[in-house]
Amino acid sequence: MLKKNLGLNTICTHVGEIKDERFKGAVSPIYLSSSYEFLDVDIKRYPRYFNTPNQEYLSKKVAALENAQAALIFGSGMAAISHMFLAFLKRGDHLVVQNTLYGGTVNFIKEEFPKYGIHYTFTDGYKVEDFENAIQKNTTLIHIETPSNPLLTVTDIRAITTLAKAKGIYTSIDNTFASPVNQNPLEFGVDMVMHSATKYFGGHSDICAGAVASSNDIIERIWNVSKNLGGSLSDMTVWMLERSMKTMGLRVKTQTKNAMKMAKWLNKHPKVAKVYYPGLKSHPEHTLAKSQMRGYGAMLSFELKDDLDAYKFQKALSLIKSSMSLAGVESTVISPHLTSHALLSPEERAKVGISDQLIRFSVGIEEVKDLKHDINQAIMAI
Ligand SMILES: *Cc1c(COP(=O)(O)O)cnc(C)c1O
Fold it and tell me: 196 CA distance to ligand 1 centroid (A)?
């Protein structure tokens, strides 16, 4: 038996290992069976029931990382979000959702909710008053994202859960940007925490997966919906995700340190108009971030000065790739107005503060001096 209260890197490395009793191999075996014994067994295992050996054991690692009783592993971050939402929202219910949010979540709500007769309100901002104003009599769930994509706003997790609990409303959080290395929202009273495991859990830009962690009761409620909707992850990928997660603590801590150095450097750069990073003292919610995060994460955004073309800048980078996704060991950049927020109108983008000069920067594990050099040479080239 593993002892309780293990440290981060020990959890990453060991919790949820499947012991190879037969051959004594050092790593978990992969069980690829999609068919298991049915008669006289305690657990009826089936991939879409989220309970094959690899799924069951990896969920223990995720739960341990979020100090949760239980977790489910999904085929994508959006599968995790959609199954979680549909477990807590039925026809006639109302969702209060933060306005600064991952673009795919926005699309899911706007495109799918009307078909199910589920109501929703996007808040005007990310302050607790904005959430309070958006609550209606039929609100059953509040969903927040902090730090948020792509402007790294920080929402007061304790204030939101206090507000929700007083009104008997459930709360969920997208903890993808912080990762469990930097933030554990269940400690502040959130009911459910979800991750796009495609990001820091995977960390090598080669896995698409998702996860939700919560209490046993809530995970069972989500599971009851998930087993009908499908959306489980194949065991081959579950196994790869286990391998990736062994180094998550090492990777994300290095990436977080690099991000802090890059944010400070960019903040003083003559060709940069503005930097968005919760670790900077100039960030409007720096003190709040400090009170709920162990580290400020490895995502930041910056605006280039108006005389620099953001598209040409990205093309001129040589080490740092432009990429849709984020959180890999390699540094990447993207223009949010061309990707995650492309479906919003220019007016809607302006309202949430996403300009054409904005670059979202996912900081990797490279040497900081090389990242600085690449940015400077790209600026010189254009
Ligand atoms: C990527 C991402 C998602 C969606 O995850 P997928 O694995 O792409 O489905 C959700 N939230 C955030 C913050 C993300 O970055």
Answer: 4
